[in-house]
User: Fold this.
Amino acid sequence: MIIYNVTCNIPETIETEWVHWMKHEHIPEVIATEKFTGFKMLKLLTNVEDNEGVNYAIQYYCHSIEDYNDYSENFGPALKAKTYAKYGDKVLAFRTLLEEV
Assistant:
């Protein structure tokens, strides 16, 4: 299994609105690509020194690297652009790709 992990840093002032948008708009759009079999949205509880805001990790699961590559090439850029158009630099995202062993 391949896990596409997106860790986001959100200002506390937009946290509630962002979480609602993620759950009701963005994540459903990602899942609608049919490249992922499921997801989890997690809030980080560990405090990081010099870190402002709150952090979330969204993990999307897919069967193969080919499914991820198809998402990354054909769907990811438009969804990233849509997120940037809505939030600009307010939301910082760090993306990693993991493989279950």
